[in-house]
């Protein structure tokens, strides 16, 4: 019952042998990797020797976590028996006594991981070098930054399997020189359609850091609710949130520092001028077509209501709100949204039409002024604005050249952004939307499926080409990408299971780049067992990452791969 | 970004008003229901007065659970403010002091819920009558069986909302006379592709009972693993399970009694002769084409290997295994499977071909003998056999008239089963498969989606018509139906979220039948708020049922319903 009756549809073909990947299961795969075939075990007295002067607290805590993961992951190898048969190979194996962690001479004074993770995109160093000698004794991790050291610690944790009492690798010596292919490797979470407690966000940040995802794109507010308490604008959440489902300034500090300590930059989004009906509860004067009906004429999701951007008062209010929010986040990035601005809303808004007539300006000119005012305020704070593609491609708004544009409608839309010489973050719904394919959430639609069917599999995300549709001269505009969870049908109940391990797929796309260290292209066949190791570690560490196959397949890499059936002569053929 | 830009595609239409359903949110809806408009609160000293002589322990425990749910559900009404505005209406409301629980005179001596839940399908009484007077004092629940009383208690729990300190209804008096439209209302779980601990199964049984689902179809074994320890055949699980992921006889007793106490009959399936490769680990002599390659020629899922049913020794072994398993379960039902039998496997099996030549019988004749032997053994134990449709429709096997056939390939296949005058349980993949639409689990398939895309929404399951494609003369053959979870991509991590609240949809289809108590047809619009109340109760009781919409929609029934957009004149039209 689990697949259609394939045996009815024989295909004559050659039987291709399955290539079984190696056992060194890192995720994301490092850029440069050399491994051997010598067994090596972690000494029972293994220690991490931090040789960094005035080591920042978050680095020390990261080392404590690494030691805890090494002790508790208990990950068996992906073979029947989970590696118990390896114990023989470990007889008399050398022992690794310690990992020596140091900064390079160029590094200068050690800064906290947090401060390096939130530095401007171009200015961060995530590079590290990790050497595990086959002779045991001491391994070395060196980097130009504590952020690089943290990435290296994350890789070191993934090198080891457990069998019986032994924590070991069969592939020493190991030499890794690593740095990401793209600076922006993100995950977006919508906390406005449905709310997620701080503990859920922290658990998600942990899982992100294990896959070296470094940007948490927080779509915190929307038309359904406004859960962010903003200093000076506390009435907006007080009246616009789901009752007391509010992130306080203390919660934001907590989330930002938790993320930073894990090498993650929190990019907040206050979506404007659309997706803002919830602001009406506190500021009706700034919202046009509030609750207008039928909602489908005035918004893509109930309820209708958008910022009256043609109004100078609304523009000033919004700029103030944005600046106050930006001050709560250390990131150099800030998203003002800009997606799905609904025009009929303003065509029927008397106040907007009055302003347009009085000033003799068009709606498009007013939208441009609105966006430029918000972005001017952000630049005054030293921040780089991010917008969704719609402002550029649908409304033809002119933005400054440093603006980062998130492509979402389709991967093919990147071309139009590149043509305007703007920087690109890939978030295409046809590859990266985690919510697609789970059915219709709009009511009274008996047969409805999601608007972006089908489900976007990990395989689909993994085969994404960051340079698809882009000329070579435009490739430098790609900063990276992110998988995206809109929460119409998500809550704490399915947060982990809808995100993990799928969202690790793009993490490897944007860290490892087009090819694996041996020069072969990324491919789902060799990726699957490595993704399993990450998934098993996630489960062991308390994240509900789902199985991708029957365990039978997971323990036999390649055995469940797609292959053509072969025709068997039936008696009737004789 | 959450839906396509609908405003670009205006449709001229009339704006239809939304009908807001009432607040009496029961799931499944009773067959007969009368409600008033009087407020009534549960007395702080509310008690359940069990007037049943020698009340069985599982009934007493059910009453204790009901009292706990009444105290702890804390379910607010689906309105903004969650019903705090109701407190005014409760001023001076009458108090309900107690619920009197009795058996009717026809009932005879009280038997345990378990024994009644596991009685033969036709012989159970789930009927009950529940009266809540508007004058308060005492409500009464009466039934012909403790099973009926349990169903009534489940309904009573759903009548109450909480606001402030008050547990109340606004719709007294309430008079319910209820009994299911169909005797078989099931949920199937596959514990062979991936394993689920006993605690996960128990939590699932609890959630099932809240929706009055009464059949747990346990697809316990398959080719990937054999996790059931069977007395006299302990080697099969010892060698065929995923290491120590085994259900012991004690676990089975525990699950069966936990289910029975919740009005649930556990129907175990040992799928034969296909889906049995895991038996090879202990009995290679009984398995043909074991691990033959390419697997897609010999099985629908890795790995290949099927019972050598043409062999008398294998038939005897299997009959013994089935009978030993059947003795572990009190149910009068037992599934011998029979789906997806792969024929090429036997065409290349030397031993099978030798037997066919020696006996001069065909594979089809041998398959029929095999099935009839297994079913003969079951009937000797007083059990009714269940099979998947394939044996009848694909292999044209003759089975006795009391055999129950599960329809899975498509809802349209029911017609062919009815034509043979066999009883039907609906489990059609095009309506009820919970695993569909989550992507391809077979490896090395970069762009693959699930074979049964798209995702089967709760709406899709809810609009299922049990009599579709059936003539009136065949309708009596329909026993009910079940939603189905194949676990290729499920584990404890997503068990709740993939099942709930979706699997409650068919529970109402098969309990309530085609119409609601007011005679109107079941429809997703009026169902959604009631399904929400069930979902919120599930979450409060520890089951991770997912949100179906943004909370904004959930609290405003009808506000997010599909409606046509209206064309707004743009300046260019003037």
From TrEMBL, chains A, B:
Name listed for the protein in its UniProt record: Beta-hexosaminidase
Natural source organism: Irpex rosettiformis
